[in-house]
Amino acid sequence: MSVSSVFPQLEQLLPRVSKPIQYVGGELGAVVKDWDATTVRWALMYPDAYEVGLPNQGVQILYEVLNEQPDVLAERTYSVWPDLEALMKEHGVPQFTVDAHRPVRAFDVLGLSFATELGYTNMLSALDLAGIPLESGDRTVEHPIVLAGGHASFNPEPIADFIDAAVLGDGEEAVLEITGIIREWKAEGCPGGRDEILLRLARTESIYVPRFYDVDYLPDGRIQRVVPNRPDVPFRVAKRTTMDLDAWPYPKKPLVPLAETVHERYAVEIFRGCTRGCRFCQAGMITRPVRERSITTVGQMVKEGLEFSGYSEVGLLSLSSADHSEIGDMCSGLAQQYADTNVSLSLPSTRVDAFNIDLAQELSRNGRRTGLTFAPEGGSERIRKVINKMVTKEDLIRTVVTAYSNGWRQVKLYFMCGLPSETDEDVLEIAEMAHEVIRAGREAAGTKDIRCTVSIGGFVPKPHTPFQWAKMDTPEVIDGRLKMLKQAINSDRSLGRAIGFRYHDGEPSLIEGLLSRGDRRVGKVIREVWEQGGRFDGWSEHFSFVRWVAACETVLPGLGVDLDWYTTREREEAEVLPWDHLDSGLDKDWLWQDWQDSMSEFEQDDCRWTPCFDCGVCPSMDTEIQIGPTGKKLLPLTPVNGLRVPA
Amino acid sequence: MQRIRLRYAKRGPLRFTSHRDFARAFERALRRAGVPIAFSQGFTPHPKISYASAAPTGVGSEAEYLEIGLQSQVDPEQLRIALDAALSPGLDVLEAVRAGEGSLADRIDASRWRIELPEVAPATAGDAVTAFLAAPEVLVERMTKQGRRSFDARAAVVSCMVVAEPDPPSEAGGVPCAIIDLVVRQVTPAVRPDDVLSGLRVVAGLEPPVPARVTRLAQGTLTAQGEIVDPLEADREGVGIGGR
Question: Cβ neighbours of residue A394 under 8 Å, at least 6 residues apart?
Fold first, then answer.
């Protein structure tokens, strides 16, 4: 049965909302297929506003991978702002895809990519607008399979009631395998209904179906155990790892929006995974091992991506781009290829060493100088040992001075506040460091006209990291430290004027902490917040701490726990964590040991350059480090002159 | 430097493209199409593009104009085809001509608009239009960057009439649809079709139940007879005289 577009109804509402262009699709790279000519249909959602969701690499990659299959249709949907949500409810317009404006409810799968837990309330809005029951148990074979992915899916327990399944890890191959299972089940006439298809997915041992697992609690509120409630599903569900990134050179045809979005560039992931071992970093822990994309594939992707998109900016992305084994050749090769064009190249430069500045110099050859950002993360030498960010104060000063003497007038420094074992003194050292940066920088640059920006993020302990057992500081402590830091920075007026100070309040971090390490009971809090109007919790103008606290107070006492219990409480070694049955490959004993090492300020090396330290990922996932060098070089591009006129 | 003038359309869903959105998309299209665009001098060079007054966001158009400067000579029709292919369907490049003397802006002082009013009977709309035209002045309000301001929507209107069409767009299911043909001079503050619709509400209480669908049909020089002359006509004549 064909599905018609809701655009005629939506069109009536668009003149009445802000930035209607975000709802009409029409991007370059967008694909619209004949509904009836396909058998498996995916609606991919990034549960945030279009301007944030469209550039998301994960969604773009899966969109392209799926649409390359002739019998598969993939479209995209994003969160609608409250102005349109109200109108859609009033006029009965359902959640729609932007590609062909089809109702989300008509698809086989609604795949949600959660980069952050703060998108959970937006998922409920979308389900509600789509006419899909909010709770998995209330859905029938008529409804899409609600599937979560993205980093937050490594602990999907807080949304276990709302999703049908979760995929951990890389999605490229997972979406094709899921497609195959659904294709087969549909061809058989959907035997066994919803339970049967979810069971078939669960049997892959790498798709988590929460309803097939029961959680038992101890009288004190801790989890006693999480066990399958049927014999044919695995005790633990493993993450996916896509090996050989050269075989998956996506996006080839990036989506280029008409609307203004947060990133307007061709982004290419130069490697996936990171073994630097920063103990706060969930991304670094759950994406191991390091898998490089080769210099030649990167060169090819940049060339084709720019030709396709018309972008004039390229981002070479990864968790620590300067660590690519051939980053020097890659940067100089690309800089040479695009020297006479208006293309600007950028590297998210967070590593604190002079090499990074060489790379930045290389990339700014054609005169387009991008910003320099360094991330020491911790203010004191001591706290940097705790978090395993091996950089000394001297390194940092030397690096920044090099930048200033090479003509940069502004650098950004990233830090965190609220780290385990942190004291006021650790944070106050950020001010000293910033002062010294400016002092040394002025001397090196020979001018007073230099600046640095200090950006502070709130630390949130994440599952599958050595800090998963840590307690959070209260917002009062965090805000107090930030206030002290600000005063310390401004204690010297001349230096203080050259230092910008940006930070986030402690309150949103505490809620992110609740959602990150929450268990199934937290789902009731999410639902209560949503029912009380909670939306777009990642946006400070929409986030309401009061609403979250009130919801916790309404819901949690009856369950024997509270907000503090989830956030400011340190866990013990023996405690069953809500995500213990979800396997990131990291050995829990290794994580615990790393946590202990952290508290004794003992650092851990990177396994790319030192012997394996047995984090457990490679043997349990049957993967291995894939790094160069390949020894290859990027060749000069033959300039193509003349108009590209289609045949 | 070769200068080329383009006419383009914003159609269907892509009429919700704002001018800024279009400008970004157009610059990307220049790169995709391999157009040898000229750049301004200076520390941050900008591509040489100048736009004639753009239709409001949400209003379709068959007659948007811009001019670009090129580093080398290209065939205008080849350029048109290349740019049209490089833009999303719905942002359609309709015509390209070599620029002649004078500026594009000097040739544009009026627009013709088509306003579709679904679920409004043509006779009702006709009465409102008659009342509007009979009024010496019709004060309407609009939010501007300077805040809410009141201005006359009547004086700039050259002509306004309900037109009959053999097969109006939304009359299929027996739902009426009034169609207004409107010619407005480009003045300051700009009087847009929605201001005229506000005027119809002020003078005759016309409240369309669903949002109007508006399309700019033409822009150009207003003649004494109230007709609009295509601003590219002079350039086309120039080609005819000077040859290629």
Answer: none
Mutation for testing the A interface, residue in B14, B32, B35, B68 having most A CBs under 10 Å: B32
Residue B36 has pLDDT above 90, yes or no: yes
Domain made up of A265-370+605-637: CATH architecture: 2-Layer Sandwich (3.30)
Q: Evaluate whether residue B176 is within a structural domain.
A: yes
Instruction: Give A252: exposed, middle or buried? Use CB within 10 Å, 0-12, 13-18, 19+.
Output: middle
Quote the CA–CA distance of A18 and A27 in Å, as a whole number.
19
Q: Within chain B, what is the greatest distance between any pair of CA atoms?
A: 61
Q: Assess if CATH 3.90.1150.10 describes domain A372-398+406-516+575-584.
A: no
In A12-51, the residues whose Cβ lies within 8 Å of chain B are 12, 14-16, 19-21, 23-28
Read off the CATH number of the domain in which B13 is found: 3.30.70.580
pLDDT, average across residues B217-235: 94
Q: What is the pLDDT of residues A295-323, one digit of tens each?
A: 999 999 999 999 999 999 999 999 999 99
> B17 contacts in A (CB within 8 Å)?
21, 258
> Which segments of chain A belong to CATH 3.30.750.200?
372-398+406-516+575-584
Tokens of A614: 């047995």
Q: Which of B16, B24, B31 sits opposite A24 (nearest CB)?
A: B16
Q: Are residues B64 and B122 in the same domain?
A: no
What's the number of domains chain B is made of?
2
Please give the residue range of the domain that contains residue B152: 107-228
Name the token pair of A549: 């606290």
Q: What is the pLDDT of residues A424-481, one digit of tens each?
A: 999 999 999 999 999 999 999 999 999 999 999 999 999 999 999 999 999 999 999 9
What is the pLDDT, as a whole number, of residue A639?
A: 77
Is B237 a domain residue? no
Name residues whose C-beta falls within 8 Å of residue A102's C-beta, 6 or more positions apart in sequence: A3, A4, A5, A6, A35, A43, A75, A96
| Chain A residues inside the 8 Å CB shell of B13 | 7, 11, 24-26
CA distance B49 to chain A (A): 16
B113 and B211 inside one domain = yes
Q: Cβ contact (<8 Å) for B31 and A27?
A: no
Looking at A23-37, A334-348, A489-503, B216-230, which range is the least confident one?
A334-348
CATH, residue B125: 3.30.70
CATH 3.40.50.280, chain A: domain bounds: 7-238
- Backbone angles phi and psi of A439, in degrees to 5: -60, -50
d(CA A92, CA A68): 33
Residues of B at the A interface, defined by Cβ within 8 angstroms = 13-14, 16-18, 20-22, 24-25, 27-36, 39, 45, 57-58, 74, 78-79, 81-82, 85-86, 88-91, 210-211
The single residue listed with the structure tokens 């109230």 is B226
Question: H/E element holding B112?
Answer: strand B110-118
**Secondary structure (3-state) at A372:** strand
Query: Quick one: B81 and B140 in the same domain?
Result: no
> What CATH number belongs to A7-238?
3.40.50.280
Judge whether B243 lies within some domain.
no
For residue A40, list its beta bridge partners: A72
* Whole-number Å distance between alpha carbons of B133 and B113: 16
Q: How many CB atoms lie within 10 A of CB A558?
A: 9
Asked if the C-beta of A261 comes within 8 angstroms of chain B's C-beta atoms, the answer is: no
Over residues A318-344, the pLDDT tens digits come to: 999 999 999 999 999 999 999 888 899
ipTM reported for the complex, 2 dp: 0.93
What integer best gives the mean pLDDT of chain B? Answer: 92
Q: Which of B219, B222, B197 is nearest to B210 (CA)?
A: B197
Examine the domain organization and report whether B55 and B140 are in the same domain: no
The answer as to whether B207 is a domain residue is yes
- Regarding whether B189 and B216 lie in a shared domain, the answer is yes
- B32 vs chain A: nearest CA distance in angstroms? 5
